[in-house]
Amino acid sequence: MCYISLTFRGLCNIHMKHFSRPIYCTTVVNTKEWRVSRGLPINKNAEGILTDGPDYTFLDGRPTPLLQKQKLRMLKQRDFASKIVELNSELEFAKTRHQKMLQAKEEEREAILRNRLKPKGRALLDKK
């Protein structure tokens, strides 16, 4: 008879009739944390010379065609770059618009101060 018990810490224990031996199961989260803590990418197959390089080369020096995943990765990076440029231009537009709104508000305030009621008659003569 053999059965597996799972404790709350994620440790797997296999219990046999006369023999008991703990087996420790590493979770995917622990593996990802370990890779990130050492400065490695989360997915070891996501980048690197084996992933990014060509599968073969021509002896006469011709360029090799791109693989399907390389094409997809290049298109994805191109989309990221275009999105960054678009968002950057929107940010610059928002900054300039905000500055123009502040400047218009200040000009409106100054116009109100210039056009307010001025003293007339005797008060104007006494002021000079």
UniProtKB/TrEMBL annotation:
Task: Identify the Pfam families for this entry.
Answer: MRPL52
- Give a yes or no for keyword Transit peptide in this entry: yes
* Gene Ontology molecular function, alphabetical: structural constituent of ribosome
Name this protein carries in UniProt: Large ribosomal subunit protein mL52
The record's GO CC annotations read:
mitochondrial large ribosomal subunit
Coiled-coil stretches are 84-115
* Gene Ontology biological process: mitochondrial translation
Q: Does the keyword Transit peptide apply?
A: yes
Cellular location of this protein? Mitochondrion
| Entry superkingdom | Eukaryota
Organism field? Parnassius mnemosyne (clouded apollo)
Instruction: Name the family the entry cites.
Output: Belongs to the mitochondrion-specific ribosomal protein mL52 family.
InterPro entries assigned: Ribosomal_mL52
- Alphabetic keyword roster: Coiled coil, Mitochondrion, Ribonucleoprotein, Ribosomal protein, Transit peptide
